C-alpha cells in the first residue's frame, strides 16, 4: 500500500511540475510576445529610417533602397544656402545622389511617383556645390562628386558663376545643371 501511495505522490508531483513548467513557458511566451509587439509599435510610431533599415520614412519622404535613406521635394522656393539650412534644420541634408542607381531612382520617381511627378519640370536644388573649381557633395564629409549626370554642355556658368547643383528637366530628360546659387528654387532634402 505504501509503495502505491509513493507512486501516486510521484505521479502527482510530475504532473504538477509539468503544469508549472508549462505555465512558466506560457508566461515567458506572453512576455516575449508583448515585448515584440512593443518594439514593432515603437517602430511604426517612429515611422522613420531607424527601424527596418529605413524601409519606412517620415510622412512626405520617399525611401530610396539604393542609399537606404529618405528623400523629400520641398515645395518652397529658396536660395541654395537657405535650402541647405532648411534641410539641416530638420536633421536632413540637401539631397546627395552619389551612385548611378540612386540617380536613376530619382529620375524614375520624378516621372512616376504621385508626390513627385507634378514637379517633373521644376528646377530643384540638390546638395552639390562647386568649391573653387571642384564639385563636391556638401555636408560633413564634403566629398568630391565622382558619379555625375550633367546635362550636355554643363556645367556652363551661364550668365556668371553658377556654383550650385540643380536637377534640370528638359523634355523630361532629367539631368544636372550648374545653377546660380542666389536663385530661389524648390529643393530636395534627404534624411540620412
Ligand atoms: Ca548652368
Could you explain the architecture of this structure?
With 192 residues, the chain is of the alpha+beta class. It has a domain at 62-191: Mannose-Binding Protein A, Chain A. The protein is built from three helices and eight strands, in the order αββαβαβββββ. Strand 4 (124-131) and strand 5 (134-137) form a beta hairpin. It is globular. Calcium ion is lined by residues 154-156, 158, 162, 177-179. Calcium ion binds next to strand 7. This is CLEC17A. InterPro entries: C-type_lectin-like, C-type_lectin-like/link_sf, C-type_lectin/snaclec_domain, C-type_lectin_CS, CTDL_fold. Keywords: Disulfide bond.
Mean pLDDT: 81
> Can you tell me the CATH topology of the domain at 62-191?
Mannose-Binding Protein A, Chain A
CATH architecture designation of the domain at 62-191: Roll
Class per helix and strand makeup: alpha+beta
| SS field, number of helical segments | 3
Low-confidence runs of at least 5 consecutive residues: 1-12, 31-54
Bound molecules: calcium ion
The H/E string reads HEEHEHEEEEE
Helix content: 25-40%
Largest sheet: 8 strands, mixed
Query: So what's the oligomer here?
Result: single chain
Principal-axes geometry comes out as globular
Please report which band the strand proportion falls in: under 5%, 5-15%, 15-25%, 25-35%, 35-45% or over 45%. 25-35%
Number of strands: 8
Distance between the termini: 77 Å
The top level CATH class name of the domain at 62-191? Alpha Beta
| Cα Rg | 28 Å
What is the CATH H-level superfamily of the domain at 62-191?
Mannose-Binding Protein A, subunit A
Amino acid at each position: 500500500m505504501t509503495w502505491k501511495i509513493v507512486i501516486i505522490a510521484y505521479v502527482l508531483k510530475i504532473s504538477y511540475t509539468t503544469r508549472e513548467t508549462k505555465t512558466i513557458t506560457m508566461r515567458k511566451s506572453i512576455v516575449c510576445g508583448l515585448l515584440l509587439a512593443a518594439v514593432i509599435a515603437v517602430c511604426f510610431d517612429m515611422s522613420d529610417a531607424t527601424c527596418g533599415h529605413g524601409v519606412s520614412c517620415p510622412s512626405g519622404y520617399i525611401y530610396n533602397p539604393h542609399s537606404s535613406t529618405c528623400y523629400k521635394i520641398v515645395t518652397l522656393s529658396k536660395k541654395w544656402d537657405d535650402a541647405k539650412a532648411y534641410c539641416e534644420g530638420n536633421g536632413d541634408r540637401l539631397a546627395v545622389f552619389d551612385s548611378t542607381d540612386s540617380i536613376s531612382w530619382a529620375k524614375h520617381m520624378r516621372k512616376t511617383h504621385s508626390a513627385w511627378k507634378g514637379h517633373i519640370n521644376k528646377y530643384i536644388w540638390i546638395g552639390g556645390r562647386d568649391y573653387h573649381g571642384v564639385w563636391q557633395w556638401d555636408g560633413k564629409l564634403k566629398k568630391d562628386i565622382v558619379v555625375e549626370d550633367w546635362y550636355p554642355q554643363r556645367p556652363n556658368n551661364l550668365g556668371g558663376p553658377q556654383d550650385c547643383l540643380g536637377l534640370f528637366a528638359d523634355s523630361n530628360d532629367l539631368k544636372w545643371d550648374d545653377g546660380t546659387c542666389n536663385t530661389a528654387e524648390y529643393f530636395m532634402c534627404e534624411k540620412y
